[in-house]
Amino acid sequence: MDRRSFLKTSALGGTAAAASTLAAPVYAQGKRTLTMVQSWPRGFAVLDDAATYLQNMVAEMSDGALTIDKKAPGELVGALEVFDAVSSGQADMYHSADYYFIGQHPGYAYFTAVPFGGTAQEVTNWYYHGGGEQLHDKLGEIFNMKGLLAGNSGSQSGGWFRKEINSAADFNGLKFRMPGLGGKVLGKLGASVQNIPGGELYQALSSGALDGLEWVGPMADERAGFQEVAKVYYTAGFHEPGSALSANVNLDVWNELSAQHQAILRYASMATTHYQLAETLANNGAALARLQAQGVKTLQFSDDVWDAFGKASAEVMDENMGDDLFAEIRTSFEASLANSASWINKSDGYYVQQRVRVLGQ
Ligand code: CA
Fold it and tell me: Measuring CA to CA, which of 5, 39, 77, 225 is 20 to 30 A from 288?
């Protein structure tokens, strides 16, 4: 997709400009409440947890001067309409996963996860020390948004199926939910891929509208109840090895905030990433054991299936290289990943292998 045609055809620029001319004073008696639309229902494990941590941290760090008013899907806009709502100024900020918005720009995939991308640590390395945050902002300038990462749910599971996947051909014709560029990869394997919001997934799987889906990982998936309607669970997936969440802010709103409140949003977002990742990883193992106790069969895809994922992933990534900004983001990300991996694989990765060998865990 050409970036200029994007700007030309997008109605967002016009509405954003209109909104900024009508902007009300940012602070009333030194206080400001930001309306945050989010893609998760209230109480939704892992995802709404992250949005709530961010909300609480911002209020505490600012001593109540800056607060966030969370709006769940349907309260102001739909789950996948949050991007346009913030871009246009209808809402001040959103909490979501940016790869839902690859239709707006494919580069947004990198600010959640890309196929065969980085682990949570590697994504964070890139974002804060490899140019990722600056590229998030560069992308955000097109849509009048300041980028913030606020959450990471770690390595996501390969997904829920009714039948085992014994070869890549088993994806052919499968009605499967997977957002982002990962979904495009499964599309190359013949799957009928859909992006359905999290709050609607249980119904879609139980009604047969979907044959399978990926959501997050054991802790979130157990709470969503997928084990009640599917019994085959692949624990590792190629599509989201370290899945970040975002809290992007309308750029006019951001620019009107005090430097202190901008810093609070940025640091609270960082802390949310760290805290939520720890929560998820601390709980996934026990959740997986409970799923297995409920009759869920846990499997890994075969090497042949992984090879098919890899081939199709490379094709999908290459198909987007006609967009200059996508290419810039991909180049930056892959350089950082290579740098991170060149140490992590020889240290953490090797150490964990040895610990499993010596201690069994
Ligand atoms: Ca997912």
Answer: 39
Residue 130 lies in a domain: yes
In three-state secondary structure terms, 96 is strand
CA dist 236 and 105 (Å) reads 27
Q: For the segment 305-320, what is each residue's pLDDT rounded down to a tens digit?
A: 999 999 999 999 999 9
Residue 109 lies in a domain: yes
CA of 47 to the centre of ligand 1 (A): 11
Structure tokens at 298: 């846990």
CA of 244 to the centre of ligand 1 (A): 10
* pTM for the model: 0.90
Measured in Å, residue 190 CA sits from the centre of ligand 1 at 19
Residue 115 within a domain: yes
Host domain of residue 101: 3-154+242-281
pLDDT of residue 359: 97
Could you tell me the two tokens for 354?
Answer: 């040895």
At residue 235, the 3 state secondary structure works out as: coil
Q: How far is the CA of 217 from the centre of ligand 1 (A)?
A: 8
Q: Taking the mean position of all CA atoms in its chain, how far away is CA 285? A: 21
Q: Please, which residues have CB within 8 angstroms of residue 152's CB and are 6 or more apart in sequence?
A: 120, 123, 124, 242, 243, 244, 245, 273, 276, 277, 280
Q: Which residues contact 176 (CB under 8 A, 6 or more apart)?
A: 159, 186, 191, 192, 193, 194, 210, 211, 212, 213, 214
